[in-house]
Amino acid sequence: MQPRDLSSNAPYVPGRGAEEVARELGLDPDDLVKLSSNENPFGPSPKAVEAIRDTAPDVGVYPKASHTDLTDALAAEWDVAPEQVWVSAGADGSLDYLSRAMLDPDDRVLVPTPGFAYYGMSARYHHGEVNEYPLSADDDFAQTAEGILAHYDGERIVYVTTPHNPTGSVCPLPELDALAEGVDEDTLVVVDEAYGEFAAEPSAVSLLADHENVAVTRTFSKAYGLAGVRIGYAVVPEAWGDAYARVNTPFAA
């Protein structure tokens, strides 16, 4: 017996830990700083550490299936309905939920290159196909609606990373608005704001008031220093927020 053909699915290669590299090179891990995964060098808030300690005795039972406390807090933060907040195991979990909700076999997605490999990986896991649009050093990796739409051909999902990793470029809110207007009505524009706290540009969540084809993903891994806890979320339009119950992994967040 063999699994299905996975030859087009390149494995994700995470950044190596300082302890692993130090052991290999015969160095003291305290002398190394790991940069490859963009973890917060300041670590989590002491209040977050305290909260984790307080809840540690409860790990023997499943978490609340609806995780209403966090959902309600995020909904209040972004001024949206709780049904619009899809909590997940990291922001990549939200990417999977959106793939489950949107992609039929052979649907195509459009991803930036260079860019986060998991956009394409998630699409392929869900039997989709991946097309790319380039970001170039010639124009300082500018992200514009015109530049993305020049490579758009009716894909079901278009991914935009702002601020972009690894270049740091942003896609300004008016450009995202123009992109949402420029794609077909059945195309979802996914705005990945994993590094949103590090940019002065306002969040694309505000676009959801006028667009049913925009979703925004965010994470607690970067600015909040909680990469090991795996908490991310998507903010989606109210019109289809109830799809979460049909695509989420039970007890995953």
TrEMBL record:
Coiled coil ranges (UniProt) are: none
Q: Which residues form the Aminotransferase class I/classII large domain?
A: 31-251
Give the GO molecular function terms. Answer: transaminase activity
Keywords assigned: Aminotransferase, Pyridoxal phosphate, Transferase
**Cofactors per UniProt?**
pyridoxal 5'-phosphate
Q: Is the keyword Ion transport in the record?
A: no
For the keyword Transferase, the answer is yes
Pfam families, per database record? Aminotran_1_2 (PF00155)
Superkingdom of the source species = Archaea
Q: What family is reported?
A: Belongs to the class-II pyridoxal-phosphate-dependent aminotransferase family.
Protein name per the record: Aminotransferase class I/II-fold pyridoxal phosphate-dependent enzyme
- Tell me what organism the protein belongs to: Halobium palmae
Q: What is the lineage of its organism?
A: Archaea, Methanobacteriati, Methanobacteriota, Stenosarchaea group, Halobacteria
